[in-house]
Each structure stands twice: as C-alpha cells, then as structure tokens.
Design goal:
Layout: E1 4-9, E2 12-17, E3 20-23, E4 26-28, E5 54-56, H1 63-70, H2 74-81, E6 94-96, E7 107-108, E8 118-119, H3 127-142, E9 154-156, E10 166-169, E11 175-177, E12 182-188, E13 196-201, E14 206-216, E15 223-224, E16 229-235, E17 241-249, E18 252-254
Length: about 260
Amino acid sequence: MFLFKLVARRDCWVLMLAGVAVSCGQVVLPDSEVATIPSISRPEPAKTAIDSAYYVVQPGDTLYSIGFRSGHGYQVLAAWNGIKPPYKILVGQRLKMFDPGPEKPTIVKPSNDPGSLVRAPVEKRNSSQKKSIVSNDKKKLLKLHWQWPITGIILKNFSQSGRKGIDISGRLGQSVKATEAGKVVYSGTGLIGYGNLLIVKHNETYMSAYANNSLLLVEEGEYVEKGQKIAEVGKLASGQAALHFEIRKNGNPVNPLEYLPKN
C-alpha cells in the first residue's frame, strides 16, 4: 500500500506519495530519478563581420557584393586574395579584408647550377606602354553617358545619406531604368539595408546600384542596355516610395549628382 501524508507548510500543502514530494504545483523527484541533461558542445560560428580582418563567404555572396558592402571594391579584394576573372568565390572561402603587402619574389633554381638562386624576371613596361594603357582607360570612361534611373525629386542628397548615394522619390511600381549599359553583377536581397538590390558593372572603374526595389527584372550575368527597365520602385524604410541610387568608382561611393545630367 502507498502511504499518503499531508503536511501543512505556510501557504502550501505537501503531499508525500511513495517518496515523491509534490509541493506548490512542482514535482520533485528523488536524486536517483533525476535525469541529467547532457551538455552539447556547439562550434562557434565563423566570423562574417564585413569589417573583420577576414571574411567568410556566405551563401548568396559574390565578390562584387562583398566589395560593394565593404567599400573596398571587387578589384581590390581580388588583388588582395589572388582571385582572377571571372572572380569566382566559394561558400566558406576565407577572404583577406586587408592589404597583405607585396609578394616575395619567386626564386628559381637553374638546372645547370643547383647551388645558385636567381630572381624570376619581372615584366617592365616602358613609358609609351604606360601612356597607351592610361589613354585606353580614359577612352573607356569617356564612353559612359549617364541617365537618371527614375524621374523624381531628391529626398536625400549625397551628404544627407552619409555619402552613400541619393534617394529619389517615385511611385510604387514605377519603372527603374539602367543609367548606362553594363553587366548585372548582383541581383538579390543579401545586403542588409538595401532590400531588393541590383548592381550593374559598367566597366572596370564604375558600377551603379539600385536599392529598395519592389521587383527585380534582371538576373546576375545578364547584360542590360542603357535605358532598359531593370526593376520597379519599392519603398524606403520610412515607407515612402523611392529609389536609393548609388554610383561607385573603384568601389568607393561618389556623388551621383556629379555624373547624372542636369535637369
């Protein structure tokens, strides 16, 4: 038989049932019946902060989006990490977010003299070659003739945006057009604060960005023409229908009003 015993303690009753105490709505088991919850050792998540010395590539990242977000630009990150065109990166890849400095010269051992060491020859460009490269770059830049992505009033200028583009008022669903011809290098929602974002690469120096869209109409890798509809206007964080627009030069934001035609 079970032994039942009621014991009054202040404002609650204790029921002793075969060695099990029920007190104030709680069940207390004998030490022999208490289950020990095993501790689970979980690995620490990899560092993904964009301002860390290293960045671990996440799903959906591209070198262009990482360069855009960090402000370094894809060309600089490619140089720092030895990444060559078409700038492919892999999930989990660890990228240097700093200049590692010049590489040590390659040492070559001639087969006829194993004991001697010589430096690998370094290709040098003469002044005429340098001038031709500079002039070619200038020609490429001169080919860009920017147009406004949408027609609207400037809600926030370059200074007011913290030197990161401008906000242009619009209508929800209004057509967003490419300001110049180029290749879409990012199309998605992976950059916090930019919503539905498109980044178009126009040449090795300039890119344009179109943020907070309600709809994206082009995909990564697609080539777009100047004036082509690429998205539709969405809302800013304030709830107002508008487009956030940026122009990046070598990865750094520049004032779009210095490039867009004067109305």
